[in-house]
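User: I'm writing a short methods note and want a consistent example. For Phage abortive infection protein, I'll paste the sequence; you return only the structure tokens, no commentary, since I'll be parsing the reply automatically.
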Amino acid sequence: MQYLIIKFRKAKEKYGLFGISLLIISILSIVIGIYISYVFFNKISTSVRLIENGEKINEQLTGVIGDFVGGIVGTIWSFAGVILFFLALRLQSRELSLQLEELKDTREVFKSQQFENTFFNLLKNQNEIRLNTEIKHKTFNSNTQSNEATYTRGNAAFEEIKEFLIKEKDNLESNLKKSEKARASIIATSGDKYWTRERGEKYLDKFKTHYTISYDNIKSNPKLNSKVIFKLTYNNFSSQLSHYFRNIYHILLYIKESEELELNSILINEMRGDKIGIYNDKENFELSRIKNKYKKYSQFLQAQMSSTELLLLFYNALFFPKAKKLVQYYDLIENLDIDDLLYPEKDVEYYAEYQENSEIIPKSSLKSRDEIMEI
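Assistant:
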């Protein structure tokens, strides 16, 4: 009994209930045809003779037998043959579908492997760029009475850039105070004898030339302070930072494009009816899984970056909208300490939530040291 149950389950998996029903009908048709033939020939053999006088065949009787076999038994067996042919086509179609599914799965695995190989090669390249980033210094050697070159490389180079950034912040704040006095001298409200009208005008012109923005514009929009400071820093270290940040952008772009291809593939399959979307709290489970998968790849990139690199990335992205969108979409700066920002309260506003077309770019969730190290 157990053997029959196992056989039935295997047949059900192979043919389905409908296929099993047709198979049973075809077998019964063949059996019925054999039974009818047996009964017919048995009756014929006992009641009539096909050969008369031992020599002549009764052609009339054989014609009747042929008509009976061809008309009744042949029809039954033809019906069984049609059913078996249909079952063979159906089984072949199912086998082909399974092969296509396996081929599709194999192709998906290949795509995933291809993506990971490219991604980790890009990640390796990014790490090499970081380690090979260097800043050249010229120092005078009193012994040889000549200039000698020294280099700061890797993490130390980025720390030096950060120190320059902070130094420029102090310089800007000092220059803003001087510019305030210069502006007061122009409108004749300054009691400082040093700041004459002419000197004030020259200083404000010098301020605008140095920072490429007027004092009045910064005064009316203090949020620009950080961008002004980073612009000076970037210009001073453009040969080190441009290649570094450009490579980060292309890594993020590669992740985003791969994510969109996979998301679009799922949506197309659902529209065709090839797959049925599973929703959890009005959110498509499969789409969420894909987004989380690619978010993890961006976290691999983030894990290689120091807090100083994240700080510089924060400000660099402000000048490049496409890069900023990707940085904010993958929340690449989520581990950046908000206390490290030049002007924390103002700067976090740059990464507020916004909507672009139908896509919502979430707010970057920066935390302070106290929030991170909460007891």
